[in-house]
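Annex B. Sample input.
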Amino acid sequence: MTKFSDKCKELLAENGTNVYRFSSTSSLERTALQRMITGKRLPNIEFVKTFCHSLRLSKTEEDEVLELYKIEAMGEPAYRNEQSILHLLKTLKELEKNNYQNTIGFIDFNNIELLSNVSTQASDTKLMMNLVLTKEFSQNTNGEIYTNLPGTYASFIQYLEWLYRQHKKKILVKHLIQFQMNASLSNENLDIMNHVFPLFLSDTLDYQVFYYYSRLIKSDQVHLILPYYIITTQYVLLLSADFSTSILLSKPEIIEQYASEFKRICDLARPLFHRTSSLTDTWNSFISDISSNTPEINYLHLQPCYVDIVGEKTFLDQSKLFIPDYMEIANKFIDSIKMKSNYTNHVFFTKRGLDMFCKTGQYYGQVGTFFPPLNIQQRIEALTQYQNQKTFHNDIMLKDSFLSLPENLYFELQGTHILQIIRIDNIRKIDFITVEESSICEAFYQFLHSLPASKYVYSSEDMSKIISQAIHKLTSLSIYS
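Annex B, continued. Sample output.
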């Protein structure tokens, strides 16, 4: 029995019927129905939808059944990974509107006086944490914060964002996090990335994330004495696993020893994100990171690949006009694109991104960001040549109602071992971020591989029809303009 089959059996009983009577009134085959509710066989999705409609389930109940069906079909780890990635993409899209900053409100802790260096209540521990962080931001010298707090402990990240906005001070924060070694728990690693990546992108702090693998699980932490810490230039705050107890240390020699040990451990750990921030470094990294052993490359972005849309010649012509200092790199960039075409490639983009291009001729988050918008005639030519190229059938259009993507972020996954996230706002604001942690890359790989057969995408026929309609609409505008 499974959660899905148990739910279906429960719904039959609640509706006062059984397999024999229900199969005769719903036209569902009795043996298939029996196997479904006993967990012996998983039917197709249409069978499940007919089951729900025949039982006259509410929309909420039907959604629950379909979600349990999807978990059963995909496997719970893959399902959890998919939901985590969808949540990350949605979060990044929302944060992009606010320059990757949340709306946060907190109390000012500058004037709080400590009555004791020991806290035995969660509320007092939070006050003590706020005080330690506030003092570090308030001092005249450059501050440093080292911690091993869980990556999913959202309060810590929110405090940092709020304090930066209060003090406009970009201090060094080193965050040492524990990743699960157990493959069945690897979704926890992806959840950590969901929490720390937006702060890394925000540029509000010099925020560095390091990770190490451990076999310890969350329930093990409660058996450890004060396993977490925050180290600043003024304090060491030790915290229990449930954050109900804390001890504040302030002797300089103790702080120095903790800081020294932290740096030693960080030297043994691995950085989660590698970053380059100039156009030259970004393009060189993009070109050099192509591995001859990469079996396939998948792309995820708001819009189709810019070079696929305009063609290599137009791209190089535009480069000569608008970024002449980078022509050597532009030619190498084209060579790398050709090299990538030898691999199995899939480009995932959204209908919203296509509509934005048709309406404005502008590109976002890709190399096309460096160039002016295409006029209507150029858009027609670009879409026509795009639709006629050999690799067009590898591109997949996403439904915006199910999947939200930020405008200025471009995801590229090489096989199952390198995830590149490129942010291009303009020629002066570029981030090229590489993630090589295996469980995160594998989660993205599974997610992108499951997309073509999911409800999140248009069929290839519908995608071709949508682009043909866009060309026809632009042609009509061109005639009357």
